[in-house]
Amino acid sequence: MTLIQIEHVSKSYVMGGEMIRALDDVSLDIDHGEFVAIMGPSGSGKSTLMNILGCLDVADGGDYVLDGKAINRLKDAQLAEIRNRKIGFVFQSFNLLPRLNAYENVELPLIYRGMSRKEREPLVMKALEAVDIVERRKHLPSELSGGQQQRVAIARTLAGDPAIILADEPTGALDSKTSAEILEIFKRLNEQGRTIVLITHDMAIAQQAKRVVYFRDGKLSEVG
């Protein structure tokens, strides 16, 4: 069953007085439960596509349907609701709040949803357990290694039970051993039925996914 469907999507920016076509007539389908890597060099359009998939930006043209809902026609408040309910983000820089411990960082999005403490606690603990970081739940980000911080970031995403996890260079700030551990978490989550889209410029990372989409100069050049 198709979760993501984009058809003939285009996106342009003006940089230094020059019009840059970041996405050029891109079409792509991603099914529920897929693990897809979007690969390409810097400036190829992969991050622009990620922003559109994550409802952080909108396309200039074309259609985007997420889980049966036409995204193009939604207003900002509706897009924010989609981001909060259906999409989980994992970034290279972790984006943890430094004054909150691991538990509180994972809990925060659920607070924004208006959940009670009683509702939040089992969800937070389940998410922390899923990435093997429960024992560090009372530690601040500054007291955690890069790999541990990324585990917390993944747990924060899992707590909201999103339909899709978008991971933008999630191993970019990690050493090779820790990167392999984080990729194993993504593979395990995918085996449990999670849909994962991973952005990377590294072929070795991309090959850990079940399907690889290649971008160059804003075009979908190959699907493997």
TrEMBL record:
Write out the GO cellular component annotations.
membrane protein complex; plasma membrane
Q: What is this protein called?
A: ATP-binding cassette domain-containing protein
Its lineage reads: Bacteria, Bacillati, Bacillota, Bacilli, Bacillales
Q: Which SMART domains does this entry report, sorted A to Z?
A: AAA
Q: What is the organism field in this record? A: Paenibacillus silvestris
Give start and end of each ABC transporter domain: 4-224
Which InterPro entries does the record cross-reference, listed alphabetically? AAA+_ATPase, ABC_transporter-like_ATP-bd, ABC_transporter-like_CS, ABC_transpr_LolD-like, MacB-like_ATP-bd, P-loop_NTPase
Superkingdom as given in the UniProt entry? Bacteria
Cite the GO molecular-function annotations of the record: ATP binding; ATP hydrolysis activity; transmembrane transporter activity
Signal sequence: where? none
Q: Which UniProt keywords apply?
A: ATP-binding, Nucleotide-binding, Transport
